[in-house]
Amino acid sequence: MTEQRTRDVTAPAPTPERNPWPALWALVIGFFMILVDTTIVSVANPAIKAALDPSTNNLDNVVWVTSAYLLAYAVPLLITGRLGDRFGPKRIYLIGLAIFTLASLGCGLSGSLEMLIVFRAIQGLGAALMTPQTMAVITRTFPPQRRGAAMGLWGATSGVAMLVGPLAGGLLVDGLGWEWIFFVNLPVGVIGFVLAWVLVPNLETHHHRFDLVGVVLSAVGLFLIVFGLQEGEHFDWAAWVWTMIAGGVVVMALFIWQQAKTRSEPLVPLALFRDRNFSVSNFTIATVGFTVTSMSLPLMFFVQLARGLTPTESALLLVPMAVAAGVLSPLTGRLLDRVDARVLLAPGLLLVAGSLFWYSSLMHADTPIWMFLLPSFLMGVGNSGMWGPLATTATRNLEPRQAGAGAGIYNTTRTIGSVLGSAAIAAFMQSRLEANLPGASNAGGDFGAGQLPAFVVDGFSNAMAQTILLPAIVLLIGVVAVLFMQRPPHLVKR
After folding, report:
1. Structure pTM?
2. CB–CB of 137/204 below 8 Å?
3. Per-residue model confidence as pLDDT tens digits over 263-281
4. Do 241 and 266 form a contact (C-beta atoms < 8 A)?
């Protein structure tokens, strides 16, 4: 009786009549900030390298500014989803937002690349606390037949962030310095905190035991794999690197076995994967995470170092993508409640993959810059049919009690894909540089300080053009996966 009375007082369930949209809008602000932060950093990478790592030509070092964030983001996601179920998504979201905002201050004040990487990792922890709560609130407050519209807003947020992030990043880097790409998070974080405090309801909590063994196994396995991929090229793929990667694979296999044997409260309820759409969506979002994270690095390095564009000018090349995604995502969200997700997903993923092949064909020293706007627009159209439909399909059949766990798993697979994408693109990029510019990594010149000398531009351009093909090929695998989805139950009944 006491437990029940406590639950009713501290975590009342929302009434059916409550309008869920204000809460979603409040949560979207935090989600927006996370996305903006990611895109801002991709634009600022050359400036960060020039400021904090000017003495080497190894691009792996600055890539860790992204990889550390993603690694710290991915590892806790499984348990942070459960934390939202146990203590309430509102409470966990607010804690994550506070951590993310304070870590942004630390990033801006960093005086070394190592310090920046540490604070980026703390940012990742804050983002891990926030992200599953947004999807859990959508799952628990919107009925299945209305989630498409809610996820449409989620997708539109991604599109707007693609525009605001690079543009703000370019303007801030050019005008005030790279530090301000992190300082800008402070007012946004404060506003988002106040709105979430006021507008997000206290949803009913569910008691969960936490699988600490599973947390340790997943964290160790993922770290070993990612660190090995990230640093493999730097250490000439020594035997110990391969041993580390193999050890990570073994630990992850042990983790899956342990989850299957855990009967009480596994970190990953494997029963969720009996839903084919949940399984396929998770696999596909991993390919999307891989692609989105990895494609920006070779593109930004090419336009800034090989073509001499400023960060602002580089960001302007992404405007068509952001506008197209921002305008079309709400439309595809509303359409998703009435059609099979595959109708939107297959073309969307194909368009994004096609735009990357297009980019690759244009990455030459003599290509008119305006031509890069065309694949940018195509990518925006593809994005509108990618983010929202995938998230909706993954969560449509989840029970309220499983909302946090399901959202945690979905965001974990997305982020694992992003981490692997960041690591793989760094290794592949260095490999292509060595193939096209032998000895470049050990040369005395600098890949982080302004436009490259003319005699290396062609080799560098070819390396970046070859590198961007990797995320394109990975995304094509996602296209094949979505073909195995099932028709949503609410459409089958019609």
Report:
1. 0.76
2. no
3. 777 777 778 888 888 999 9
4. no
